[in-house]
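Escalation from tier 1.

The customer reports that the assembly of two entities below gives different structure tokens on two consecutive runs. Tier 1 could not reproduce it. I'm attaching the input and our single run for tier 2 to review.
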Amino acid sequence: MKLETSAFLAPLSRAVAQRALIVALVRRELSARYRGGALGFLWSFLNPLLLLLVYATVFRLVFAPRADVRPYALFLFGGVLVWGFVSSALLDATETFRVNGPLLRKTTVSAEVFPAAAVGARLTHLLLALPVLAAAILFSALRGGVRPNAAVLAFPIVLTLLVLTVFGAALALSALAVHFGDVRDIVGNLLTLLFFVTPVLYPIQAVPARFRPLLRGNPLASFFLGIQDSLFFFRPVPASEWLWMLGTTAVALILGCGVFERLRDSLAEEA
Amino acid sequence: MTAEEPAIRVRDAAKIYRRYGRRPHGTLKSALLSLRRASREGGVVALQDVSFEVSAGETLGVVGSNGSGKSTLLKLLAGIVRPTRGAVSVRGRLAALLELGAGFHPEISGRENIEITGLLLGLTKKEIMRRFDDIVAFAGVAEFLDAPVKTYSSGMAVRLGFAIAIHSDPDVFLVDEVLAVGDEAFAHRALEKFSEFERAGKTLVFVSHDLALVSDRCRRALWLARGRLAADGPAGEVVARYRESVAAEEGERRILEPGAGGRIGSGAASIELVRVLDSEGRPTGRVKSGEPATFEMVVRAAEPLADFVFGFQIATVSGAVVFGTNTFLEGFRSKRLAGDARVTLATEALDLAPGIYSLDAAVHARDGAPYDYRRDVLRFEITAERPGSGIWSPKRSWGFAGGIGWKKKGEEH
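Tier 1 run:
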């Protein structure tokens, strides 16, 4: 598959051309990560499961759960998993050229594969957690919750667009981080801020009407509303949200590829 | 693709590293500030005005001291960095062995590392699978394939890295100093592999500090000095010229590194320090011909001595004695040397021809038995505005009378 693209998206098409290498890098990352642990890949299931248990316990015993979204632990779970992917992928992207500096300086590999592999590794963790999420949804339905329907089919599409958006941002951030040591800290703090203005912990109805436009300014909001619609409320994602998502994805890819392309020549020198 | 078309073509290539990139921890603010400055200062020139071609099937050696631009040249050829000016083109599949096992991840197995390194070198999965057994056999790591690479000895890792690279079947092979790391047997096998490459009409460029290897294996060599092409020609000649230049520089460097020569003596007294001082009494490694200079030694006697002689001797680097003297020859009769002492020999004008000179300093008994005799204890350089051959450069002036005419300065052309 060769993407016929303008020079703008050159990093994306090069990444596609090198997918075998990216897959191998992701596998290397995961296999290096789990090597030596007694439970190995099981952790990919255990981590989200334990997270779910913590939520279920805390919101039953410590905090009052939100009354408008029940069961709140399940409401949180999907969003938090996906948010975990977004934030860890972006943070990893800021480190990827530091970590892979020797490879970049000593081999002829093209640089896109590293941010792509950083995103890919975090995506794999998310995908491995999805069975736990599915089980939680079914368990809740059996206990009398809302029954899942065809609306869940929107989720893979939302996720695909989100992954492309994250990849665009990862390209820009990874290249900028090589030149500016501050990028990682800035990204870390922005993500903390962004977490609270993204509908992860709350449904959009909980936001006072006059603040909703502010929420709209957050490019990630539509993705998480889409996730809530498809995985919790089981209702179709509104067309306006699809437009937001598509627009955000396009802008992120074009900007990300543009920044990366401008800086790529210097990466092997500076990383 | 014609046969005459070179495998590698480099034209007027220059690589300038921007200076702000050299700092490891740039911050936004400092980078924005220095971005402006760097563009004015122009950065560090790693390579400039380099042009050459390499025909397919040629083996080219590259020599030069550290920092002369050898690695930058290989990186340009490999396409890892782009030339700031000029053009670099390489025809055919290229494998760059800039660091063996650069792609290895210590935590994962040799098997997985072979696959990933192969992909990094541009092989497809199928190609890797087809060559897998050959790679393992060449590297001799069969029984460790499933162990993480961090458990490999450094020799094993190097062999594996080399094996993967040569089995990537390149048309152009760039090698940076890789034979220095393996053992004898491995180096031998690697060289055999290089010969195979040569016979197969592949192009090999290798950077090495092993000059004998370069003149043996390569018909042609490049010598890089301070980022420029100092020589390009038959390997034997280029290596010989490079050797000469290294020897000359070596002599110069030793001015600042005293104590490289031999030392004999009983130790009853020891020379702690030897220096050359300029007319102001400051230690120096360079003296202008005809200027005053003072030779100084600091001596320590373990026990008080009644019999002692101090001496200095100046020689050329090739060993010819220029001048020598000692306190006994000049009429001093020893009485007592105890503890620390300082001896100086001042000259009003050091009328030596420009060049490098070596200094011996000694403290010994009257019968010549040395307490501490230090040969070639330091080297210093004599500089002069006026040339002249030999070792003596007297104060001088020409005189002319009769029908002799000279052009004025600036009238020479």
